[in-house]
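Data deposition worksheet. Section B asks for the primary sequence of the deposited chain exactly as it was used as input, without tags or linkers unless they were present during the calculation. Section C holds the resulting structure in token form. Section D is free text for depositor observations; keep each observation to a single sentence. Incomplete worksheets are returned to the depositor.
Section A, Depositor: J.P.
Section B:
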Amino acid sequence: MRQRFGLPVFEAGWVWLAGAGPGDPGLLTLHTVHGLAEADAVVYDALVDDRILALAKPTAELVFAGKRGGKPSPKQRDISDRLIELARSGKRVLRLKGGDPFVFGRGGEEALALVEAGIHFRVIPGVTAGTGGLAYAGIPVTHRDTNQAVTFVTGHSAAGEVPEGLDWEAIGQGSPVIVLYMAMKHLGIIASKFIATGRNPDEPVAVVSNASTPDQKVLETTLAKAAQDVAAAEMAAPAVICIGDVVRLRSGLDWLGALTSGRMLDPDPLGEKGSGAEQDGERQQRPNLA
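Section C:
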């Protein structure tokens, strides 16, 4: 494969910071698949699908470095030190992170630690959940009839609280579509902040849990009811949340639902037939994607 596609040589003592995408192994890049096949050690996050880890060579050391909110997790400094230790021992190290390593993935921090330690590294971008995960739910983050801008926002700070350094008013008033990462815990507070900036309480919201995996679930609701409906539907993290009129397009673009259930798509999701949204609080569970 390396010769056919001109893929780079994975040198001993190097660290590749690679994105594993939102879950579906088919969304891996060729560089990441190549890295899995060549790595002596794979340091992976909690959100990396087991089917992806199965692509690692049999002799590779698999090192769990997952961080999950509210649960005991490795400290970031310890993860960086482990990468440095493995590289200095002469191993080819693949640091495998869910989504894209540089989109709310702390890949920048790990890369800077490698720079400081004098370790050679390569960055392999991945499909981030804010675009790929929503696409699997039939939601485009941009559409010329709804928005020409989109804002990606983290739902919690390094301390696990609602971020204090964000200008919520500017985001709420200036961005027609907002995509939230890691926001399930504080969804009610964040929704209230946006409503306080003047956003419509009835604005459509979609919550996509376990995007692009066999456990994917999609909840369509409104900004005012989002937290309440998420709790009632027992939606769980990891999830990506989309706020804005692009959510209405799902009735016409839910290709996965049409593919697995054989139904026709709505040809006019933004037209006079209605918003196309499901009933508030209704949860759809998708069939196995494997």
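Section D:
Residues 76-88 form the longest helix (13 residues).
The first strand starts at residue 15 and ends at 19.
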